[in-house]
Amino acid sequence: MPIDLPAQPAPQRRPFELSGRMVLFAMVAFFGVVAGVNAIMMTAAIRTMPGVDVKSAYETSQRFNGEIARMHAQAERAWQAQAQITRNGGGATVTLNLRDHSGTALTGLAVEAKLQHPASRQEDREARLVETAPGLYSATIPAIHRGAWTLAVEARRDNEALFISRSRIQLAE
Fold it and tell me: Of 57, 119, 124, 155, whose CB neighbour count within 10 A is largest?
């Protein structure tokens, strides 16, 4: 006599139900991730490039008329300047040839050059140029990488800025 054993019924699965609590947790988690990523990206952006060109716009605006007068006086002097930058190893040599309007070499000036990086002031390099020949000023700037730079040159005599120039340059390898 065979015994008939009834088959166990398969456990019934409940169909998936989306509850209000699950939707709330998903929304909170989504916006939490978005806010966290935004905070990280803003912090990184502000630390690497604050977007500020001058420390105090007010003080810069107060010097504006004096700067205009200085630029007019520089234009009246009609000095001729030729700058040259040559790579040497990992650095660069900046050479500046200064002549007056008649072509006479300008001597006895305190000349400074700044290579300013367009994206980060931390990369900026400064050098005091030394007069190597009449009207010819030169300095070596160590550890400068290739790319776009701004060359800012300032020549002074008796603490008066007589010549200021800013030029965009491209340093090759």
Answer: 155
For residue 32, how many C-alpha atoms fall within 13 Å in the half-sphere facing its CB?
Answer: 6
Residues 6+ apart with CB under 8 A from 84: 94, 95, 96, 97
The Cα–Cα gap between 77 and 162 comes to 9
User: 3-state DSSP call for residue 19?
Assistant: coil
**Phi, psi dihedral angles at 73 (to 5 degrees):** -65, -40
Task: Encode pLDDT of 38-60 as tens digits.
Answer: 999 999 888 877 666 677 778 88
pTM of the model: 0.61
Q: Identify the bridge partners of residue 65 per DSSP, sorted by sequence position.
A: none
Pairing of strands 125-133, 136-141: antiparallel
